[in-house]
Design a protein that fits this description.
Layout (H helix, E strand, L loop, with lengths): L1 H17 L4 H23 L13 H33 L4 H40 L2 H18 L3 H8 L3 H14 L1 H15 L6 E2 L4 E3 L7 E3 L5 H34 L2 H4 L1 H10 L1
Antiparallel strand pairs: 1-2, 2-3
Helix pairs in contact: 1-9, 2-3, 2-9, 3-4, 3-6, 3-9, 4-5, 4-6, 6-7
Length: 281
């Protein structure tokens, strides 16, 4: 199993290095995120981790519209990016035309999939929370909320990959993700754990009791908070964001490589393994 994983890793790295155009969607996504990053640092410079006063009142509408706009743009970029990765894994190459096609074909499906998952979580919460609160145990409430959420996230971890690769409906991709992950449970579990280590959420806005800022995730770094190191903290936050973006791209490609191989049962006749071993000798 670990030998196969190493080959998947090498194939993913090679797919990215042979197709640097895959970094274009990452650059677009990073440019989109510069807007909230600017707002975050403005708030930090004002020595406040809450919304500045001038963001309250009517201006909150502008903030909401901005958040919605950013979410829509990120969804468009993701749709195009996934189709580019699909073409790289299947055909070995891609271009921006594939990005445009992906935006047109998969934006609506991805949005619907996210909506279905979010709606399911809300519905489950409306059922589970009253029951847990009736038992009067906060610990039990946390467990009954977090554990199912983690399990669900694990089993649907391939739904976006499958949606684009198979060009299927949102509901169908979610169901196929359950089946695929169940079939390759331990292998996918290891992949998701490694992905979580490298792409875990980093919150540069997380102020700790000891008056430090924690960046969290793989790059766990505490920086004393003061007006003198805001510039260094800003540079570090940008570096963290770039590393996370590259890591996220790698794992997006890795998911497509794994699904392409295991869904087509290449491992059963060792064709995939054989071709990769020859290419690296």
């Amino acid at each position: 199993m670990f030998e196969n994983f190493g080959i998947y890793f090498k194939k993913s790295f090679r797919s990215i290095s042979d197709n640097p155009i895959l970094f274009v969607p990452i650059l677009l996504s990073f440019l989109v995120m510069l807007i909230p990053m600017a707002l975050v640092f403005f708030g930090m410079y004002s020595m406040s981790f809450t919304f500045p006063k001038n963001m309250l009142g009517p201006n909150i509408i502008i903030l909401i519209l901005m958040v919605i706009t950013i979410a829509v743009l990120q969804l468009l970029i993701s749709a195009g990016k996934f189709n580019m990765i699909k073409q790289v894994v299947i055909n070995g190459q891609t271009d921006m035309d594939d990005f445009k096609i992906g935006v047109k074909k998969y934006t609506g499906k991805l949005f619907l999939g996210h909506l279905i998952i979010f709606g399911s979580l809300i519905l489950a919460g409306l059922i589970i929370i009253p029951i847990a609160m009736g038992l009067g145990s906060r610990a039990f409430l946390l467990i009954i909320l977090i554990v199912p959420l983690v399990i669900l996230g694990f089993f649907i971890s391939f739904w976006q990959t499958i949606l684009v690769y198979e060009d299927c409906k949102s509901t169908e991709s979610i169901g196929k993700s359950f089946s695929f992950v169940k079939k390759h449970f331990w292998f996918i579990l290891i992949v998701n754990i490694i992905k979580g280590i490298f792409t875990g959420n980093n919150n540069v806005n997380n102020r700790r009791p000891n008056n430090t800022i924690n960046f969290g995730g793989f790059l766990n770094f505490n920086m004393p908070f003061s007006s003198f190191n805001l510039g260094a903290m800003g540079v570090f936050a940008i570096i963290v964001s770039i590393i996370k973006a590259i890591s996220a791209l790698f794992f997006d490609v890795l998911f497509f490589v794994i699904y392409d191989d295991r869904n087509n049962n290449h491992l059963e006749d060792n064709e995939f393994i054989h071709d990769e071993i020859i290419s690296y000798e």
